[in-house]
Amino acid sequence: MSLRTSFQKLIRRDPSAALRERAAATAARVEAFKPVAAPPAANHAEQVAQAGLTGDVLATCGVDHRDGTVSYSDAMGNVSRRPLARWIAFTAMQMHSRVQSEMGRRRVLEAGDLSAEAHAEWEARIRRELCSDAVHALTFRHDRAFEAAQAIRTGAEPATQALREQADAELSALAPQWEAAVDLYQRRMDEENAIAETASDDGWPGRAPDGSGPEWRAWFEKKEEWRERTGVAAAEEASGEAGMALHELEVQIGDLSAASLAGLQLKARVAQRSDDIGVTWPDGLGEGLTRDLLAFTEAQARQPAPAAPHLVGLLDLASATMDELQSLHDLADRVGSAAYAFVWTGRCKKRGTSGDFNVAGELMQWLGDALTDVETAAIDEARRRSPTSRTDRETRLKILAVPVIQNGDSDETEAFARDLLAHAEAERAGH
Q: In the 8-state DSSP scheme, what is residue 70?
């Protein structure tokens, strides 16, 4: 074909054909950039097949279905889908078998000719290296292991007495800080009340208007201006900051474990202060105090020949203030009642019997009796005293009122009436 003929064919080419070619090329480029549709969710069998895991590999790794179940193969190579806990137990058992096998292999190679003492040292070292005790606990005591780990993580219950004593030391160190925080908060409240009582009425807008329109906004601005000018706003802010600092400190006290009488007393005083001002106890204080008392009394019960009066003998009631006596009385009453209630639960009864206590039941019975004696001792100490200040007289009367009425003894009732009358006369005289 001549060059001229070639040019003629090029010139005479159908224009629509060229357009079609360009359109096809453009469509191909667009198609290349289209997103690929996600494949449909695979079922159980497809997930196992796609994972490409069989035999020991599947048993070790498993296929997590993100719904609380795991697919894994058993010792026979059969793939099954079980809850996560079952897979953990299965895997732990495999780990335990392999650790024991490795220990046996190395025992033959490394410890065959060792003396008894050297063999014991080798055994301890190899168990540490292979984490044998941890694997054994995970395999056969996984529930206890998980509970202990969770307790340590949340701080709910230190796992050892050493950790409890460490927390108790931190708790005791907070006692002077708490005392100072209580005093500061009380001073700030007194200052706020004094400023509010002496603030001038000049500029006070009066009662707020109904609704939320311009009149209410004008009233609010005038009220805020009055609060700023008279110092009421600053006093409220200062008392609020002191109260918040005190609350944060009391929450911290509630979170720490008490392993001594000093720590228990601090927690009891925090609880009593909340009761005195009519607010709920800080979060965790009640549960922690009960737990600490149980742990403390359990430790005391392990001592030779424990007796209920032994707990009273540990307390220096003669040196306690009236407020401390009331705290001790109220906490002994509350926790002692809880201990007696626990005695009648199923966990405190011997299995297969209707009334015999197990060890836990005997402990709760002893705790209830011991705290009843503490409550009685606090009442007797309060009855022995003759306070002179108004606050101490009121506290003493509050401690004695309920037991006097419940006892129904005419002599006690008459003596209490005389004390109450004497208090009223002292109040009238301004003492």
A: E
